[in-house]
Automatic annotation (TrEMBL):
Any Pfam family hit: Beta_helix
Protein name from the UniProt record: Right handed beta helix domain-containing protein
Domain Right handed beta helix: 101-231
Transmembrane feature ranges: none
Chain intervals for the UniProt region annotation (Disordered): 1-32
InterPro entries reported in the protein's UniProt record: Beta_helix (IPR039448), PbH1 (IPR006626), Pectin_lyas_fold (IPR012334), Pectin_lyase_fold/virulence (IPR011050)
Superkingdom: Bacteria
Species per Swiss-Prot/TrEMBL record: Homoserinibacter gongjuensis
Length: 322
């Protein structure tokens, strides 16, 4: 084993500029394990130990993979490759290309994930960094954090071409679970996938929202992302970002083209969809709604430094706060 911890924002990053007050795509340490085909990759994941740095050579890895071993706080496990290292699930109609199941302390950096019903599924996991990835050609959602997945970071990644199986499930990033799925996912209790950070990602050509934040989640950050809603299907998605959780910070994002609004909040479950704060966002809507639609107002805050263009109804339906 070799390598070790390179905390996000520690100054070791070379693949992306720092965003989000220190969040950046971390650089991978020197490889301790090198793989060049699907069998070798499966073996490396099955045998991974804290501190391992798995380097995936450029090429195609035609299979679906699961991660079920954990690193430690001091020695995370790294899975690294360039965008030319492509993990291909084979069919956007079925399967999850890469699943993380109740693990901690992983750094997944740089490679491409494509052609599955789900792209990357993170269940019951924490301190996972998904950095500089390309996730594309996905049947439903590209990246999903659920079942109590907390304190994770999705940073500097490029997400596109989702909803190829069902448009209404084609989110770019999905955090938590809808109330209708709580009994399946989180023992009939709210899915508290809390304190997750979505920073500096580029999300385009999604059929559903670029980012969907579900009821039951709290305390996350959506910062410095770029959205293009040109492919949104208006019958099932009418904003880039939909916030149904509590106490989220949505700051410094830029979006273009939406069927209705740029950003929205909703109260799906009593007590949820409140105390979210929007600041410094630029909404180039070119649609009939608002830059930021807060429904109902509850304790949500829209700062006066948000801007909107091409939004027929204006910046927001509530008075801004200095």
């Amino acid at each position: 084993m070799c390598g070790g911890s390179h905390p996000v924002g520690s100054g070791t990053d070379t693949d992306a500029d720092a965003v989000g007050g220190g969040d950046a795509v971390p650089s991978c340490p020197s490889a301790s394990v090198k793989v060049s085909d699907a069998d070798e990759l499966e073996d490396a994941l099955d045998d991974a130990e804290p501190g391992d740095v798995i380097r995936v050579a450029d090429g195609r890895y035609d299979d679906r993979f699961e991660i079920d071993r954990s690193g430690t706080d001091d020695e995370p496990i790294w899975l690294c490759g360039s965008s030319k290292a492509v993990i291909d699930g084979g069919n956007p109609q079925k399967g999850t290309v890469l699943a993380l199941d109740r693990v901690e302390h992983w750094r997944l950096i740089g490679f491409t994930v494509e052609n599955g019903q789900k792209g990357i599924m993170v269940d019951g996991s924490s301190d996972i960094v998904l950095g500089g990835l390309t996730v594309r050609r996905i049947g439903d959602e590209a990246i999903h954090l659920r079942d109590g997945s907390v304190d994770n970071l999705i940073v500097g990644s490029t997400i596109s071409e989702t909803g190829l199986r069902q448009a209404k499930f084609g989110e770019g990033i999905y955090v938590g679970s809808a109330e209708s799925n709580w009994c399946d996912v989180s023992s009939c209790k709210p899915d508290r996938s809390d304190r997750n950070r979505l920073v500096g990602n580029t999300i385009t050509r999604t059929k559903a929202e670029a980012i969907d934040i579900k009821e039951g989640t709290s305390g996350g950050v959506v910062e410095g992302n770029t959205f293009d809603g040109s492919d949104l299907v208006a019958a099932t998605a009418d904003s880039w970002v939909d916030v149904k959780g509590n106490d989220w910070t949505i700051v410094g994002n830029t979006g273009t083209t939406s069927p209705k609004d740029g950003f929205q909040t909703h109260e799906i479950v009593d007590g949820w969809g409140t105390r979210n704060r929007f600041s410094g966002n630029a909404a180039h809507v070119d649609g009939p709604g608002y830059g930021i639609a807060v429904t109902p107002a509850l304790g949500n805050v829209v700062a006066c430094d948000n801007t909107a263009s091409g939004a027929v109804k204006g910046v927001s339906n509530i008075t801004c706060t200095e």
